Amino acid sequence: MKDSFWIQIDCESPLGAERFWMRDLGVAESVASRIAREGWRSLEAPLPLVVAKFCRYFLPQYVELGMTEGFFSLLAAVNGAQGNYHLTVSEQTQLLLTSNFKESGLMAKLNIEIPSSEKQSYPNHELYTKLVESSRDKVVLVNINGRQAYENWLRLNETIQLGLPVICLKVYTSHECDQWREYIKGSGFQPFILLHPGQLEPGIPATIEDEVQSLILLPFGLLDQFTQALQSE
Amino acid sequence: MIKSCIYYPTTGKPTAGGQFVNESHVIALRAAGIRAYLLLCSPDAEKHGFPTQAYVLRWHQGMSFHESDVIVVPEPWKQGLEFFAATASKKIIHCQNPFYMFHAFETIEAVSALGYQAMLSCSYYTTEKVRHFGYQNPIYTVRPFVPDYFKSMESVQRKLQIAYMPRKRANEAIYIKGLFKSLYPQYRQIEWVAVENRTREQCAPILQESAIFIALSFTEGLGLPPLEAMAAGCLVAGFHGQGGIEYARKNNGFWVDEGDYDTFAAQIARAIETALNPEAFEIMQSSAIETANQFSQPQFTKQLMTAWQSILGNDYERFILDTN
After folding, report:
1. From the CB of residue B174, how many other CB atoms can be counted at a distance below 10 Å?
2. Is B194 or A91 the better-scoring residue by pLDDT?
């Protein structure tokens, strides 16, 4: 059974070693295959190290929007994230996510919502309540993926405006610049471009030299702590 | 606390007896709630398909092996033994053939010198052999099992035909066949069916419909094909291949000493005569099936888990799968 192929991901840090497992779908461009070829730190670098450092520092609630194989949320979970909330996943993605979390012994940290239709109220009330309840006194880290991520983020952010400190991570491409610049104007977030795991550049540039770049939206007042997290081991 | 693993490295899908045994170890450990994987070390292997019920990890450069992990390496695989010797993990040899022990090691002392701390063995014969070499570290004997799909089926009509697996003695198989037909012309018309180029499961129906199986075992640690044939209800004649003395008895087969080809031909003739006598056939078939039944899955699982409880000791809990 091809399904039984797995990749082991070992994350070493000065605080210790952690590991998790992901299905190897046998597709060259799958996340697991890329990690096997290039190492876990290289996937959308430097985001993996940032997520790991951030989670070790803040022990946040972790929310993932859009389709995913679960790499970042598994990484977050083994590095101290308290809960992993996946919103807007397909049934197929749910199966993949669930098997990855199950194999990694992290099922207790996984919360998934599957929209039954595009018109479904978003996010699911029960899951949303659980997210808000479990996030009290915690930082929320939101990682945005996929084509409809922007719209999903807007909907989530509308409902989550209850004073929770939310940090948004977004890997975006050049054509999305204008859209995000427009959004940020009145959003209450400070935008930063992530250069290295310890370096932030304020703003969102008009053009992007690389094909993709990591955008971080920080709530005002959290910059110092975030910088400390990035500079931690 | 990091989740610890048992790894059984492999270079491809199981095709030979020893590889099937490694696969069965991983499947049984998993079923018992222990985190165990086949570790695929050949990047091209999956291109050729890898049908298995075992969990397979694809090795990659970024993998780390920790002190608490255990790696089980086959005894003849020099490259693999040397590669994993450099890891911090606990390392164990899975010796499934004492005759291959020195393919990778110059002497028996070199096993411990390379950092391999214990051994799994596939038979009491192999264990005794390795002890005879002078190996002093722990050896855990875990005998493999014969899968149920080999079991004799009353619904299948048995033919007076001779099944044989020529892989290990292709040249001698031709000689023995010709010698037998020359010395016993009255049995020339009996068909010989070569069991080759098939999956293990595909071999079973041929054995189940054959009255006789010719054992061409050669320098074995145990020798599974004669056991599979016994389970399938064949009368077995031929070489025990050293490791087969673990189960070869006068009442369960027509066994032959190494190199005694004339006796081999005579034993085939005796097997045919027995097959032609329903009462005699049933007596020997029952003994053979009883022997094969000693290599049952429950017995295998019991030995495997006893071995691993001892190997893992106080670390056992670190290997328990938490899939909730």
Report:
1. 11
2. B194
